[in-house]
Amino acid sequence: MPAGGELAPEVLARRLRAGDPVSVLDVRDRPEFEAWHVDGRAVTARHVPHVKFIAAGARGDATEPLPDDLPEPIVVVCGRGKASAEVARDLADAGVDAVNLAGGMDAWAETYLAEPLVRDDDVTVIQYQRPSSGCLAHLVVADGPDGREAAVVDPLRAFADRYVADAAARDASLRYAVDTHVHADHVSGVRAVREATDGDAAVVLPAGATDRGLAFDASLLSDGDAFRVGDVDIRAIHAPGHTTELTCLRLRRPDREDADTLLTGDALFLRGVGRPDLEAGDDGARDLAATAYDTLHDRLLALPVDTRVAPGHFADLADARADDYVAPLARIADLEVCALDRAAFVDRIAGELPPRPANFERIVATNLGTESMDDEEAFEAELGPNNCAVE
């Protein structure tokens, strides 16, 4: 990429996923930067407002505001990619190896990668990755006696049409749109998928969502319930802790006892577990943390060690194992948090928690159907890190 040119957000995401070091210069106003910016273990991010570069250019030295500790090459970022394009061009003209993030943070939020987790002749599982927030969704496609069928798990409303198109591209009938729990960090796409399939896709939620005030029609999954997508059996495992209704989904194939995949939602991540305070608040966090301990040890870690865990979020782009976010249960069982006793576990995950996801109360209400947002409001409401994990 020539200096002064543009870097596509998909390319940036793949570089960060690979763990390649990236320097980011964010030229938005400080409150915007502090609320949300490109971040991660592989990122060196610095903030210098655009106005400082304008003033420096007027004085004849566009590089004057550039931090000394920001190694080249540098990716310059703003909200929509216009102010950052000016800065990147001026820096390049002054001899700095700098490129602009095309489309800015808006384009970063719209970036959605898809990678295969399972790709056999008769079964495909696609993992969708949203680099800006760490949200993961999964499309299960499988052959069956009545043709090829599909289900999407934890879909985002902003990408509802994408799931429908991807199922159609695989000659599959999209039969189910499933949420593992009532999400607090993004607007759910289950109803949008149903609309996009003209009602063919059934909306499926955990049965406990009714206790939280579910206000629209849905099929409900209780612990042990199952449904089939082609020849794949998808069975519900009630996994409370992050929320009371959270339910993991165990994908099993009758011909492959060694090929179980567990879609864990926010119950279990590659480096931690779900925070316990978004439903019950600070007062109820310790009780839900204790419940999460029971879920972890009595239900999830009791599964076969070669079960492949595919979570609903990742904490850092560089957490990827190759191109996806999945790991055998045996590897996750080695996490420090899994070795804690009950009291220490509760203290760890109900103690000092990160800031709650932006607009989480309104997002929860929208996902229950008690409030509504248009597409623009939804896009704005879910910008920023999800903050659903305790690592």
Task: Draw up the topology in text.
Blueprint: E1 6-7, H1 9-17, E2 22-26, H2 30-35, E3 43-47, H3 50-58, E4 74-77, H4 83-93, E5 98-101, H5 104-110, E6 113-119, E7 123-130, E8 135-144, E9 147-153, H6 160-169, E10 173-178, H7 190-196, E11 202-206, E12 219-221, E13 226-229, E14 232-238, E15 247-253, E16 256-265, E17 273-274, H8 281-300, E18 308-311, E19 327-328, H9 329-332, H10 336-339, H11 342-350, H12 360-368, H13 375-381, E20 389-390
Parallel strand pairs: 1-5, 2-3, 2-4, 4-5, 9-10, 10-11, 11-12, 16-18
Antiparallel strand pairs: 6-7, 7-8, 8-9, 13-14, 14-15, 15-16, 17-20, 18-19
Helix pairs in contact: 3-4, 6-7, 8-11
* Topology-level CATH name of the largest domain: Metallo-beta-lactamase, Chain A
Strand residues, percent: 25-35%
- Note the gap between the termini: 35 Å
Q: Percentage of helical residues?
A: 25-40%
CATH class group of the largest domain: Alpha Beta
Can you tag this structure with a few keywords?
single chain, 391 residues, alpha/beta, Oxidized Rhodanese, domain 1, Metallo-beta-lactamase, Chain A, 2 domains, seven-stranded mixed sheet, six-stranded mixed sheet, 20 strands, metal-binding, Rhodanese-like_dom
Describe this structure in words.
The protein folds into two domains: 6-108, Oxidized Rhodanese, domain 1, CATH 3.40.250; 112-390, Metallo-beta-lactamase, Chain A (4-Layer Sandwich). It is built from 13 helices and 20 strands. The chain has helices at 9-17, 30-35, 50-58, 83-93, 104-110, 160-169, 190-196, 281-300, 329-332, 336-339, 342-350, 360-368, 375-381; strands at 6-7, 22-26, 43-47, 74-77, 98-101, 113-119, 123-130, 135-144, 147-153, 173-178, 202-206, 219-221, 226-229, 232-238, 247-253, 256-265, 273-274, 308-311, 327-328, 389-390. The chain has a seven-stranded mixed β-sheet. The chain has a six-stranded mixed β-sheet with strand order 13-14-15-16-18-19. A five-stranded parallel β-sheet has the order 1-5-4-2-3. Strand 9, helix 6 and strand 10 form a beta-alpha-beta unit. The longest helix is centred in the C-terminal third of the chain and has 20 residues, at 281-300. It is globular, with a radius of gyration of 22 Å. The model has no long low-confidence stretch (mean pLDDT 94).
